[in-house]
């Protein structure tokens, strides 16, 4: 029995058979695969390019992140350094403030002492001036350069044989001077006597000076008496006298 599929055509050419069908089927599959690959390659290329762009951006971001991380670490280090400096300055400030308070207290104390010393100085200056004045006075007394008028040109009168007495209290050793400026008689006598503060008695005795003259006699601190007498027994007398005390 003949297979009708492989029967020849009348023109002598080969008829379509199973091998041609397989060839056509394989060719269609290849063409379909190529078309599928082409169609599938478009999104793959798109995704590949997008991936490359995203990967580049990721790399850039990663680099930026690393740079920022480095900057952050540097700023963190600077912050720690500044924090340490701040703590040190705060400690120094506290120490200086404490020293300032201490110095302020010392200043107040010294200022108070200065005011006290200034007051003492003023007091001592006053005492010095007073003592210096006393010293000058005592030096003047020691050199007998101070003079005090006890009676100044006083006119006195006595009957015959009488006398006029003056009593003085003196503080320093010196001398008394009796100056009879004028008299109506020629036999005027002067007596200078006294008792010192420690009980020593002394006297010049009667000194006749006529109608005028001067008598000086040393005296001691205490009581001094000066007697000016009219020794003329026949008439009264009038005298003008001055008594001075030199010490």
Structure, described:
51% of the residues lie in helices and 29% in strands. The model is unreliable at 1-16 (pLDDT under 50). Strands 2, 4, 5, 6 and 8 form a five-stranded antiparallel sheet that branches. A four-stranded antiparallel sheet has the order 1-9-3-7, with no helix packed on it. The protein has two domains: 19-115; 144-246, Sandwich (Jelly Rolls), CATH 2.60.120. The protein is of the alpha+beta class. It contains one helix and nine strands; from the N terminus they run H-E-E-E-E-E-E-E-E-E. The radius of gyration is 74 Å and the shape is rod-shaped.
Short description:
The chain is built from one helix and nine strands, in the order αβββββββββ.
